[in-house]
Q: What sequence folds into this?
């Protein structure tokens, strides 16, 4: 498992895990996927900015839902995440290796250093880093979206997948900000794709073998070791299902078959 600091900063379904075949939009190639994801990132960022703009200095210093992190830590993390992912796009565009971060310590130090800033400075940093990332997206030639890059952990992935990583950071950490945005506000296609990828992430021996069955979309997915048949089926709407998997919900609205409590999940 990752360190506590890494766990706080991840926030999504293994952002450095390479993508599988099922995407939010399977049509077209890398450039088409990047174009669609760019629009989703812009919409998610706009929603996040509206929430961040309502915070005053006192609220920015109050705890987020992530252990040990204030809202200021979380907003600073999102700004530095945009900077790091922009580095990966520069790498893809130029062919010159530009690491996301020099190392995990650099990331943690930058977050700690920026967490106590006034709310207006946090918002300005969020805006500037998001704008710089989008400007780099606009510079990308079509062929560069297929170039492989690599984060600070995990296998390489194509450059277009960097935008998926950004989308999941923004959507999930918006919930962690504890400002009224919750899993019911996640776009449906975002929740569905995350659930599809759950089978790629919850594969360790500490994960229960479970069949996930969504009641509001046509989706079934499995988690747990590949060699184990699911011992229980968990059913319910996609958004509460994803929130439960990510540790952002207690499973309200979900049911288990055979009847009983929901199976315990490994720490996320």
A:
């Amino acid at each position: 498992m990752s360190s506590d600091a890494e766990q706080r900063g991840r926030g999504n379904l293994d952002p450095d895990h390479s993508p599988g075949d099922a995407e939010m939009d399977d049509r077209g190639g890398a450039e088409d996927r990047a174009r669609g994801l760019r629009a989703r990132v812009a919409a998610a960022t706009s929603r996040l900015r509206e929430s961040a703009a309502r915070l005053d200095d006192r609220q920015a210093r109050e705890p987020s839902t992530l252990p040990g992190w204030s809202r200021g830590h979380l907003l600073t993390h999102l700004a530095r995440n945009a900077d790091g992912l922009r580095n990966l796009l520069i790498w893809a565009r130029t062919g010159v290796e530009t690491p996301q971060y020099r190392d995990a310590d650099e990331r943690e130090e930058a977050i700690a250093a920026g967490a106590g800033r006034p709310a207006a400075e946090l918002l300005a940093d969020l805006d500037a880093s998001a704008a710089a990332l989008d400007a780099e997206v606009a510079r990308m030639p079509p062929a560069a979206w297929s170039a492989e890059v690599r984060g600070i952990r995990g296998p390489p992935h194509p450059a277009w997948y960097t935008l998926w990583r950004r989308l999941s950071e923004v959507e999930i950490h918006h919930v962690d900000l504890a400002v009224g945005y919750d899993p019911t506000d996640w776009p449906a296609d975002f929740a569905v794709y995350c659930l599809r990828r759950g089978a790629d992430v919850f594969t360790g021996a500490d994960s229960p073998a479970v069949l996930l069955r969504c009641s509001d979309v046509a989706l079934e997915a499995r988690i747990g070791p590949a060699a184990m048949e699911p011992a229980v089926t968990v059913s319910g709407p996609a958004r509460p299902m994803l929130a439960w998997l990510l540790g952002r919900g207690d499973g309200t609205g979900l049911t288990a078959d055979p009847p009983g409590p929901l199976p315990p999940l490994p720490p996320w």
Observations:
- Strands lie at 148-149, 157-158, 210-214, 220-223, 232-236, 255-257.
- The mean pLDDT is 89.
